[in-house]
Structures are given as structure tokens and as C-alpha cells.
Write the C-alpha cells for this entry.
Amino acid sequence: MATADLSEASGPDPQLRFKRRIRFHTSVQELWRSRELIRTLAEREIRVRYKQTILGLSWSVLTPLALMLVFSLFLQRVAKFNTNGAPYVLFSYIGLIPWTFFSTALSVGGQSLVLNNMLLNKVYCPREVFPISSAAVAGFDSTISVLVLVVLFAVTRFVPAATSVWVPLLLLIQVAFTLGVTLVLSSVLVYLRDVRQALPVILQLGLFATPVAYGIDVIPARLQTAYVVVNPLAAVIDGYRRTVLFGLAPNWKLVGPAAASAAAVLGLGYLVFKRMETGFADVA
């Protein structure tokens, strides 16, 4: 009798418990139908960010420009990084564009669910539209940064190589990895608010752990494959430099593992997000 009472107190029959089944194809279709909402949220965020600012859109390029100047005036003079003959301002700035996209997407997208908690409780939509729209805003800023890169090419009289045709492939890897990490971070931050305080420090450490100011050749050759699997941005940045500045094809021994890692991060990130989203409205 006591055993029966204990079993009743432990919870409902396992057959009666709610089990959420995630159908990836259905979730992607629902997300695609919400693409206009993503665009609207991104436009709103861009307007709010630059509203009543004196410099306006210039703020989107001030961070990479400032870091480029710091790297050029201090780090390069001390360390003398190998740039294969390319101007260091281009070498560092090309590394800063994808890093700034990544860090902005994480900084803004990571907090997107918490900051939009009112919409979470009032409007039904795929919850992933919030971090994805924040990543779209980061992409908008990166587009402005690319326009500045064109100016730098003109000032330094350096011509991009024809192998720049590989850039879209590298960009796809960059976006996949960034979206995957942003989805995981945004869902975790809803439940663990301490991550919000630690994020700026983590990103600062990540800036120096990623070959932005220096080349990937600084990493020992035997460790480079494992390195890009953990941090696909390293292979992406190296690929941008090889294709745009050096006139070389991407290093497929690094880009291949990085692409596989980025795809895995995106898939697992989306799965984690969908698993955790049932409690977003209650906790956020």
C-alpha cells in the first residue's frame, strides 16, 4: 500500500506526460512564412538604434575602424605579423568585419528574447524570429563596413584578387555558425541571466583568441584543424584574406572542417532553441 502511495506522489503516469515532438521541416516552413516579421523587427531595431543620434549609421563602422587603428598603431608595430605583402590596415579590417558581425549578433541577439518579453506573451510567432532579426541587423552593419573596405582599397591602391569569387561560400559558413551560436545563447540567457553579465568579457577574450589582428599561421599547423572546428570563424577570416588579398583559393583542409562544424552548430542550435522555447513566455 505504501509503495502504491509513493508511486502516485511521484507524478502522473508517464503516458500522460506532455512530450513535444519537433518536426524540423514543419518548423522551417513556419519560419519561412514569418520572414516578413523578421524584416519588420530588423527595420524597427535599426530605426531605434540610430534614432536621434548625430553620427547615425556611422556608428556601425566606428568600432571596426577604431580597432583597426589600435591594431595598426600598436600590435603590428610590436609583433610584426606576416601579411604576405598586403597592407596591414586591409589585413586587420577584413578580419574585423566578420568578427564584428559575430559579436554584434551575439550581443543583441542573445538578449532579444528577454528584451521582447512583451511580444512573447502577446503575439504568436516562431520565437526564433527575434534572434534571427537581431542577426539581420548585425548583417546590415557589416554591409556598411564593407563599403568602408572599398574606400580602404582605394586609399591603399590595393586591388582585390579575382579569387574573391569564393567569398559567398565563406560568408555562408560565417552566417551559419553565427546563427547557431546566437540561437543557443538567446535560449540559455532566458533561464541564466548571469550569462548576460559575462558575455562582454567572453567576447573580448574571443577577439584575441580569433585570428583577427594576426594570421592563422600563428597557430601551430598540427592544431589548426582542431582550432577551426571549435572556432569556424578562424577558417572564414583566413579564407577572406587568402581569396581577397593574396589571390589564393581557400585552404580547403581548414574550410571543410569549419563548414561541417558550422552546419552542426546551426542544426544543434536550432534544436536546442526549439526544445527550450516552451518556457520562454513564462520565464522571460
